[in-house]
Amino acid sequence: MQKILFIITFILIGYTANSQVLISILLGDKLNTGDIEFGLEGGYSLSSLSGVDPSKAHSDFSLGFYFDFKMKNPSWFLSTGVRVKTTMGADGLAVYDLGDQDLNDAFAEGSVDRVLGYFQVPFSMKYVFKNNFFAQAGVQLGARNASKDIFLNTINDKDDLEYTLNVKKAYHPLDAGLLGGIGYRVIKGNGMNISAQYYYGLVDVRVSDTSPDQRNRALYINVGIPIGKGKAAKAQAEKAANESVK
């Protein structure tokens, strides 16, 4: 348990996404035990911001890792982990004043994509049915690491204009909300998981109190792959066999 908390702490204080994934792969068999399953998790996300109109959903890919801690009842697990790379936000927002007339003229007929980057830590209780389906519910915390508005416009149907504005000061550094989902273990034992999760943000992420509340919403389609679970199980079986001989 101390090793797991140690790794999570380092991730939350600023390792790069590539380094985090590499550490996860190298230590996979060390983190898997009979009571803990560890693996990489990634997939597709579709997010939106409530209170923003007009807008369209923002799509991206997510990457991270997970831990499933077995409870006394073998059907129940405490599930957590970190989404190391993920973005939320909304696309197709209306343009606003940039404080520069040339920029205002250039993007007057365009739109804005709002991109909010987060480290996300979900905590949920997972119940696994005998047919390998599972359901989970809990909470998710987020620490924002990037906020930007991307102004977009197309001139004469061929020339694309783009301008990125850092809006970090306009958004709170933390987010929190409810998380629920369903999934399926493709193969028993060491097989991968396929799941769909929905996040319902409860925090108004916008700093300003004069604008309508903006809360994150997201749908995640995930694939989770245990890392080193088979190797760890083999090592544990060999250890048990050696101890029985002694």
Strand-helix topology:
Blueprint (H helix, E strand, L loop, with lengths): L1 H11 L4 H10 L1 H4 L4 E14 L6 E15 L5 E18 L7 H6 L4 E18 L4 E23 L3 E8 L7 E12 L7 E9 L14 E11 L2 H17 L1
Antiparallel strand pairs: 1-2, 1-9, 2-3, 3-4, 4-5, 5-6, 5-7, 7-8, 8-9
Question: What can you see in these coordinates?
Answer:
The protein is α+β, with helices and mostly antiparallel strands and 246 residues long. The chain is built from five helices and nine strands. It has helices spanning 2-12, 17-26, 28-31, 101-106, 229-245, and strands spanning 36-49, 56-70, 76-93, 111-128, 133-155, 159-166, 174-185, 193-201, 216-226. The protein has an eight-stranded antiparallel barrel. The longest helix is centred in the C-terminal third of the chain and has 17 residues, at 229-245.
